[in-house]
Amino acid sequence: MKHLLLSIVALLLAICSFAQTPITGVLSLCPGGSSTLSSTPVTGTWTSSNPAVASIGASSGIVTAHTAGTATISYTTTGAPVTAVITVNPIPAAITGTLVVCVGSTTTAMDATSGGTWSDAASTVYATIGASTGLITGLTTGVANITYTAPTGCSTSASVTINPLPTPIASSSGTFELCNGSTMTLGSSPAGGTWSGSSSAIATIGAATGIVTGTSAGTFIATYTDMRGCMTAHSLTVDPLPAPIVGPSSVPRGGTGLYSDATSGGIWNTSTPAVATISSSGLVTGISTGTATLNYCIAASGCCTSTTITVTSALSVNSITDLGENLLVYPNPSRGDVTVKWSDQTVGSGEVSISDIIGRQVFKAALDIKSPCGTSNVKLNGLSSGVYFMHIRSEGINHTERIIIQ
User: Does CATH place domain 100-163 in 2.60.40.1080?
Assistant: First the structure.
């Protein structure tokens, strides 16, 4: 009996030694993925209930996922088979969004499958991408491969093109400073883009030409956008012009005229020195008959304001100016002494005043019209050379005449 029991135990142990173990291995896959399953004893056969979802090598146990779904994997030896369920997870939805970006700019990639994370296969060589936001920042011209991975581990990828910026903006004048009313031409490449500006109140810019025209003093930002939508920009300074030049419209040949400008610190010059010269104080001397252009320029900016004057024929020092209204003033031009003569001695008392070319009164005196021959002498020796205006007033007379002190 003892030997019989030992034989039964030995038989049971032999049978148990050939019992199949549970299937082990990765049982959750993505389409296109694979896993090696195992069980013992190793002499069994593998089968799949749904080969369209996941197929398996009969002897190798290598399962390959094909499409989303589930399949029951069986492993059969001499006894009843053991089974396991393989789950094939779906690939996330296709990546959407604007997948073109300029260097230095951003765009956002999107995926309809929620809860996943973003990554860049190139490790930020061409672009960076926010792991949770999908925000792409272009770094270098090229193509970046981005990946969206769902919580199941399945992923989808897309390419993002990073376009270069246009070349830096260049100026035709070599600087980015211009005067109000002046122009400069800007350039960038590739050609065919569009120009725009920050404020038309400061400057205008031709959309196709890049020609900038200053309209008022200030800072202006010019932007060039190429045909790919990439942009480059540069700031410009529009400098103000000096105030308008104040002074007479003409001077006689050999005579002088004084000119001024309310903007301080400028420099005078003339573009026609053969017709008229001008001193640092704004005193113009007529050289020859014709027209002369006077310029007043700010040295720091080079911005100028100009006026055109006429140099007329010279007047004799001994000439007599007939002012009409029964009076004469002579000589004109004068070296300081001017005689005022009435032809009618019954006019009554009068006065004379002198103002400079900007309207400041520089002399005033009474006139004694009862002197012999109805003349009065006005001594103007204290006035510097230049052009002045004599205002003569008496009963029935109110007259203004330009005089020249040499």
Answer: yes
DSSP H or E stretch at residue 222: strand 218-225
Length of the chain equals: 406
DSSP notation for 275-322? TEEE-TT-EEEE-SSEEEEEEEEETTT--EEEEEEEEEPPPPTT--EE
Bridge-partner residues for 163, per DSSP? 102
Tens of pLDDT along 347-399?
Answer: 556 788 888 766 678 888 887 666 556 677 888 888 888 888 887 777 666 67
- Please state the domain extents for the chain: 19-88, 100-163, 170-239, 250-312, 321-405
Per-residue tokens: 365:
């005196």
Q: Which CATH architecture has domain 321-405?
A: Sandwich (2.60)
Cα separation values, 19 from 16, 37, 128, 279, 334, Å: 5, 17, 54, 120, 139
| 250-280 residue pLDDT tens | 888 878 888 999 999 999 999 999 999 999 9
Contacts by 358-366 with C-beta closer than 8 Å and gap 24+? 358/246, 358/260, 362/388
Residue 240: band (very low, low, confident or very high) from pLDDT cuts 50, 70, 90: very high
